[in-house]
Write a structure and sequence with these properties.
binds iron/sulfur cluster, 3-stranded antiparallel β-sheet, 340 residues, 24% helix, alpha/beta, TIM Barrel, 8-stranded mixed β-sheet
Length: 340
């Protein structure tokens, strides 16, 4: 383990009798002296106020394909320097990344300047910038914000992969520096959020809409059998996406596998297929992840059904779109960047 950076005073809190009220996310924890909020990262030190313990502390860093975030309509075929810290403000019983999200190990310490420099050095490998991922970027807020403004100044892109569980004000302050987000909508049910994640649905939906006003948005919905896979939820969710963000919004249905504290069996393939069929009534770009189904992650033209981007699990995507247009019918496609 590398030494952690010293604590820094956190943003978005005020002092109350008995503690510090954190306002960064909808939990609005009252953090008592010497204790941390639910995320485990923000601690109230009476002499300093609320401090963040994770500034610059990374648990994992790698150069990933952008498709792995997943972002399918944003610089397809590019790579992105991806990193995470530790901790999370939700407690999803099915967390697919729990070794990081529920842990406090630090493998490296990095500054915003070094991170930007590193991303620049990778530009030869089609690296477009930096993705804050692996754990929840919200609770790394101060580091993400400081770094994102430098990334923008360096002509690179910033991506967030997030649960969307953040208060509206910090979200609106951060988004002008963000180029693309993938937001998890974990279910179409507040009860699911309450019981399986320790959160609430509406703040996430509000933040999806706010993001839609500011940057490129793709959504991920992990389908868990018996929990959030009913046809009505899929239908209402995808219809909502169409109404609030538009039919061209990419939605990724991801297949659940037993993990962390949920041991029900993996999602049947038939359930994934059913979700795609329902969603396709409302949305033009519906993808299936974590499945071996031919064509499930390809992009097709919504007008003539021509293959526009072919994605394989172990190979770079083949892009047939020409300058962002369908090669067959000439339809303009909602693809950002990297189109030859
Ligand atoms: S960011 Fe952490 S401390 Fe602040 S309200 Fe959310 S869970 Fe609580």
């Amino acid at each position: 383990m590398t030494a952690q950076t010293p604590a820094r005073v956190a943003s978005y809190f005020h002092l109350e009798e008995g503690g510090a009220r954190c306002e960064l996310c909808p939990h609005k924890c009252l953090v008592l002296p010497g204790k941390s909020g639910r995320c485990g990262v923000r601690i109230y030190q009476v002499d300093h106020g609320l401090v963040t313990m994770s500034y610059g502390n990374t648990s994992s860093i790698a150069l990933d394909p952008i498709e792995k975030k997943p972002l399918y309509h944003f610089y397809p075929g590019a790579t992105i320097l991806s990193l995470g810290s530790f901790g999370c403000n939700l407690r999803c019983r099915f967390c697919q990344n729990w070794q990081i999200s529920q842990d406090t190990r630090v493998v490296d310490v990095i500054t915003p300047q070094r991170l930007v420099q590193w991303a620049k050095e990778y530009e030869d490998t089609r690296c477009i910038g930096v993705a804050f991922t692996y754990n929840e970027p919200t609770i790394w807020y101060e580091f993400v914000q400081d770094t994102a403004s430098l990334i923008r100044a360096a002509g690179l892109k910033t991506v967030l992969v997030t649960n969307g569980y953040i208060s509206p004000d910090p979200w609106r302050q951060l988004l002008p520096y963000i180029d693309a987000v993938n937001i998890d909508v974990k279910a179409w049910s507040d009860e699911f959020y309450r019981e399986l994640c320790g959160g609430a649905l509406q703040p996430v939906l509000d933040n999806v809409e706010i993001a839609g006003e500011c940057c490129h948005v793709e959504l991920t919905y992990l389908i868990i059998p018996g929990c959030n896979d009913d046809s009505r939820s899929i239908e209402e969710f995808t219809r909502w996406v169409r109404e609030r963000l538009g039919a061209a919004t990419p939605v990724h249905f991801s297949r659940y596998f037993p993990n962390y504290r949920l041991d029900i069996p993996a999602t049947p393939i038939a359930t994934m297929e059913k979700a795609r069929k329902i969603a396709a009534k409302w949305l033009e770009y519906v993808y299936l992840g974590n499945v071996e189904i031919a064509g499930a992650s390809h992009t097709y033209c919504p007008i003539c059904n021509a293959l526009v981007i072919e994605r394989g699990r172990f190979q770079a995507p083949q892009i047939y779109a020409v300058h962002g247009y369908c090669p067959d019918c000439g339809q303009k496609l909602p693809l950002i960047g990297g189109m030859s």
